[in-house]
């Protein structure tokens, strides 16, 4: 696997693990609602800052535009769909947050489950289709350039914050 994609695959693994952990918080709703609320707030921040901030940002600002330059069918097809999904995820995260803040934990969790399902489907499409294409469209020099832009992006957003989020999930 090319090294620029390794970073994104690794982030997918962290996100998938977080989704599973949050799914399991459901049982807290009845036994310890205060803990449910504080854990959900912590994880909403993770999905906003890590999944959207660190991860989707690199796809949207760097990988997808570079792939689109190579192939306009990609730009109008699956890449466009990936952008739309990211935007839906932002809306869904906001909705889950409002439900948590209003104390409607049952609906918050139902909304979270829909979000988790959609995000897992999205990750599967990227892993199986988009990243496969990304393996083949770039030459070595382009891969190197994208890799360093990814690293710069993490640095700008705060590599130490990224490490903290990854430690929180593992
Ligand atoms: Fe994505
Ligand atoms: Fe992704």
Write a structural description.
The protein is an all-alpha fold. The relative contact order is 0.17. It has eight helices and no strands. The chain has a single domain, classed as Up-down Bundle (Four Helix Bundle (Hemerythrin (Met), subunit A)), CATH 1.20.120.520. The model has no long low-confidence stretch (mean pLDDT 96). Helices cover 91% and strands 0% of the residues. Bound molecules: fe (ii) ion (FE2) (2 copies). The site of one fe (ii) ion (FE2) has 6 residues, from helix 1, helix 3 and helix 6.
Termini gap: 23 Å
CATH class value: Mainly Alpha
Ligand names: fe (ii) ion
Task: Assess the beta-strand content as a share of residues.
Answer: under 5%
Rounded radius of gyration (Å): 17 Å
Shape type: elongated
- Under CATH, the topology can be stated as Four Helix Bundle (Hemerythrin (Met), subunit A)
Class per helix and strand makeup: mainly alpha
Number of helices: 8
For the sheet with most strands, the description reads: none
Topology:
Layout: H1 3-23, H2 28-31, H3 33-70, H4 72-76, H5 78-101, H6 105-137, H7 140-157, H8 159-169
Helix pairs in contact: 1-3, 1-6, 1-7, 3-5, 3-7, 5-6, 7-8
The structure holds fe (ii) ion (2 copies).
In a nutshell, what does this entry contain?
91% of the residues lie in helices and 0% in strands. The chain is mainly α. The model has no long low-confidence stretch (mean pLDDT 96).
Task: Please give a handful of descriptors for the protein shown.
170 residues, elongated, 91% helix, Four Helix Bundle (Hemerythrin (Met), subunit A), binds fe (ii) ion
């Amino acid at each position: 696997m090319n090294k620029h994609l390794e970073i994104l695959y690794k982030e997918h693994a962290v996100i998938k693990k977080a989704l599973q952990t949050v799914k399991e918080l459901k049982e807290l709703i009845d036994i310890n609602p205060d803990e449910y609320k504080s854990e959900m707030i912590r994880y909403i921040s993770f999905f906003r800052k890590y999944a959207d901030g660190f991860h989707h940002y690199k796809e949207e600002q760097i990988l997808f535009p570079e792939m689109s330059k190579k192939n306009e069918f990609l730009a109008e097809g699956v890449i466009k769909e990936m952008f739309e999904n990211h935007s839906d995820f932002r809306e869904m995260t906001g909705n889950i947050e409002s439900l948590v803040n209003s104390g409607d934990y049952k609906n918050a969790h139902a909304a979270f489950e829909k979000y988790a399902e959609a995000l897992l489907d999205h990750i599967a499409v990227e892993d199986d289709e988009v990243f496969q294409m990304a393996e083949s469209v770039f030459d070595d020099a382009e891969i190197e350039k994208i890799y360093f832009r990814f690293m710069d992006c993490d640095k700008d957003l705060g590599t130490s914050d990224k490490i903290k989020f990854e430690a929180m999930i593992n």
